[in-house]
Each structure stands twice: as structure tokens, then as C-alpha cells.
Amino acid sequence: MTNGKKRGPKTDNPKDHKITVKLDNEAKEILNDYCKQESVSIMEAARRGIKRLKSDLNKK
After folding, report:
1. Per-residue pLDDT reduced to its tens digit, 10-59
2. Domain enclosing residue 46, as ranges
3. Residue 12 lies inside a defined structural domain of this protein
């Protein structure tokens, strides 16, 4: 399959950007607990957290 086509389902919201973060133990435990409670992946939890930052923009 080297014809240049992408694999996976088509989506209206592609995830084109990749980030890497380092967490301390407390942040990692909070993240793991949230993921278990909400039954979501680490990346979905990160996206939710980032979206919550939107309300803080332009408050200065």
C-alpha cells in the first residue's frame, strides 16, 4: 500500500498536530484518575483540558 493514500477513517476534525509533554507524578495521577473516571483516552482528556483554557483567553 504505497500509493500515498492515508489509512483510517475519514473525519471532519483531523488531528494533524502532535505534542509531547512531561508530567510530574501528581499531574500523571490526576490524568490517569480522570481517564478512568470518564473512560477516555489520555489524548481525549488533554483535548478537553486544552479546550477549557479558551475561557481564560483575552481576560487581561
Report:
1. 888 888 899 999 999 999 999 999 999 999 999 999 999 999 999 889 87
2. 25-55
3. no
Rounded to two decimals, what is the model's pTM? 0.72
Give the distance between the most distant pair of CA atoms in the chain: 51
Task: Give buried/exposed letters for 13-41 (b at 16+ CB in 10 A, else e).
Answer: eeeeeeeeeeeeeeeeeebeeebeeeeee
* DSSP string over 2-55: -SSPPPS---SS-----------HHHHHHHHHHHHHHT--HHHHHHHHHHHGGG
Nearest CA-CA partner of 21 in 49, 51, 55, 59: 49
Residue in the structure block whose three cell numbers are 494533524: 16
Q: 35 near 41, Cβ under 8 Å?
A: yes
